[in-house]
Design goal:
The termini are far apart. A hairpin with a 4-residue loop joins strand 2 and strand 3. The protein has a domain of 35 residues: N-terminal domain of TfIIb, CATH 2.20.25.30. It has a three-stranded antiparallel beta sheet, with no helix packed on it. Helix content is 10%, strand content 10%. By secondary structure, it is low in regular secondary structure. The chain contains one helix and three strands. The structure holds zinc ion. Zinc ion binds next to loops.
């Protein structure tokens, strides 16, 4: 079976993500042993990107 909608029923009952110990979100991958949100388990630094932040008014006007 492919990994489309039809195969999603097979995944029922299995947890892929658990609560993250560092950020508290439900984004810690059980098998991969890393957090999708903060990168816990993968990096010691907190995963963060500039594009996450909403652009401030100051930055938009600057051109
Ligand atoms: Zn996390």
């Amino acid at each position: 079976m492919s990994k489309g909608t039809a195969s999603m029923g097979v995944r029922s009952g299995k947890k892929t993500h658990l609560y993250c110990r560092r950020c508290g979100k439900h984004t810690f991958h059980k098998r991969k042993k890393r957090c999708a949100s903060c990168g816990y388990g993968k990096t010691s630094k907190v995963r963060s990107y500039t594009w996450q932040k909403k652009k401030t008014l100051k930055r938009v006007r600057k051109q």
